[in-house]
């Protein structure tokens, strides 16, 4: 299936919130700024499981989003970045190449 059809049928607008960490020589501190980039995503199903870090007393929900690989430039840093879809903000926990050519999977929670 061509990706254009996939995104035309199932795509939705989102915002990639890229966190950039840098050293400010004026203040002598490490600072962070957030760069917002509009991006289209195709949302996969959410999966709820028990969080092992809380001895399985708290649920955690993970989501997978498909994005066009070309939308992620070579200087895009997804470490410590988030994806905002509608009013929900997701932390990107893993990036994976999709079996579909030209697409990348963003695993989020």
Number of helices: 1
Gyration radius, in Å: 16 Å
Could you tell me the CATH topology label: Thrombin, subunit H
Structural class given helices, strands, pairing?
A: mainly beta
Output the CATH homologous superfamily. Bacteriophage SPP1 head-tail adaptor protein
The tally of strands reads 7
Mean pLDDT: 86
Instruction: Tell me the span between the first and last alpha carbons.
Output: 27 Å
What's the level 1 CATH class? Mainly Beta
CATH architecture: Beta Barrel
Secondary structure: helix percent:
under 10%
Order of SSEs, N→C?
HEEEEEEE
Overall 3D form = globular
Order of strands in the sheet with most strands: 1-2-4-7-6-5
Beta-strand share of residues: over 45%
Low-confidence stretches: none
Main beta-sheet annotation: 6 strands, antiparallel, barrel
Oligomer: single chain
Number of domains in the coordinates?
Answer: 1
Short description:
The chain is mainly β and 109 residues long. Helix content is 7%, strand content 57%.
Molecular structure report:
This protein has 109 residues and is mostly beta strands. The protein has one domain (3-108): Bacteriophage SPP1 head-tail adaptor protein (Thrombin, subunit H), CATH 2.40.10.270. Helices cover 7% and strands 57% of the residues. The protein has one helix spanning 3-10, and strands spanning 12-24, 29-43, 47-50, 59-68, 82-85, 88-97, 103-108. A six-stranded antiparallel barrel has the order 1-2-4-7-6-5. The mean pLDDT is 86.
Question: How is the topology of this model organized?
Answer:
Blueprint: H1 3-10, E1 12-24, E2 29-43, E3 47-50, E4 59-68, E5 82-85, E6 88-97, E7 103-108
Antiparallel strand pairs: 1-2, 1-5, 2-4, 3-4, 4-7, 5-6, 6-7
